[in-house]
Write a structure and sequence with these properties.
Shape: globular
Structural class: mainly alpha
Number of strands: 0
Strand content: under 5%
Helix content: over 70%
Largest sheet: none
Radius of gyration: 18 Å
């Protein structure tokens, strides 16, 4: 197993950063950036820490905490630095793939980076999940995305983020019972995980159970009061429930 740093304190900070990162909340991403930054201060050649920082930065843009045009260039700078330090870090190629897909609409380049990431380290659940959710999903290859996410979960069965992604993919396929089962599994592990509550709200919206959906969003907001993602989902539910003025107020 390759060591990416000899500094044990930097390694510990990196692990803590990943833990905070996967919360996908405003506070979690702020904490992750600070932890990765401190790891880089202790070891300026720590490629994985730069990749973690890039992941946190693009997640801010993806979730609406920061304007994408502000977040994505900073994320690209960080991941480019990771690859300059070590081109063999598969996860960094996957992170670059996300940025190419989401921000630059370079789908050919994005898939090239994702496949390179998996080729470098096929045992990386992170790379497989990112390939599934940020490439295969938006290009409509949902069955492949489900298979890749299931593979990621087989490598990391306790990842609540991967399981939320799997539930969302089932939701896109209109396999609503499977989607609900995945979100409920997440909440068994982490009862306050806001993304699972939020996505349950979307499933209940499609079922016409607007009251239950809005309750899910309230639970999500109690876990992360600053989530623009939750606001956008709630606005769609209000619109579906013919509460147009409330939806427009929330969306505006």
């Amino acid at each position: 197993v390759k060591r990416y740093t000899e500094n044990l304190e930097a390694y510990d900070l990196y692990l803590k950063g990943r833990f905070e990162l996967y919360k996908m909340t405003r506070d979690g991403l702020d904490a992750a950036k600070a932890l990765f930054g401190e790891a880089i201060r202790l070891d300026p050649n720590y490629a994985l820490a730069y990749d973690g920082l890039a992941y946190a930065l693009y997640s801010e843009g993806f979730l609406g905490f920061v304007a994408p045009n502000d977040a994505m260039p900073k994320a690209k700078d960080a991941v480019r630095r990771a690859l300059e330090l070590d081109p063999g870090v598969g996860e960094a190629h996957a992170t670059l793939g996300v940025i190419l897909a989401l921000h630059e609409w370079d789908w050919v380049g994005a898939e090239r980076e994702f496949l390179r990431a998996i080729g470098l380290n096929g045992a990386s659940p992170v790379s497989r999940d990112m390939y599934a959710f940020f490439f295969l999903r938006p290009v409509g290859r949902i069955e492949e995305a489900i298979a890749e996410t299931q593979q990621a979960l087989s490598l990391d069965p306790l990842s609540i983020l991967f399981r939320v992604h799997l539930g969302f993919l089932f939701y896109l396929e209109r396999q609503y019972e499977h989607a609900i089962a995945q979100f409920r599994k997440v909440l068994e592990i982490s009862p306050e995980y806001y993304l699972a509550h939020a996505m349950l709200g979307q499933v209940y919206t499609l079922a016409g159970n607007f009251a239950h959906a809005l309750d899910c969003y309230e639970r999500a907001r109690s876990a992360d009061s600053d989530s623009k993602f939750v606001d956008s989902l709630k606005a769609m539910t209000l619109a579906a429930a013919n509460r147009r003025e409330e939806a427009l107020l929330l969306a505006g």
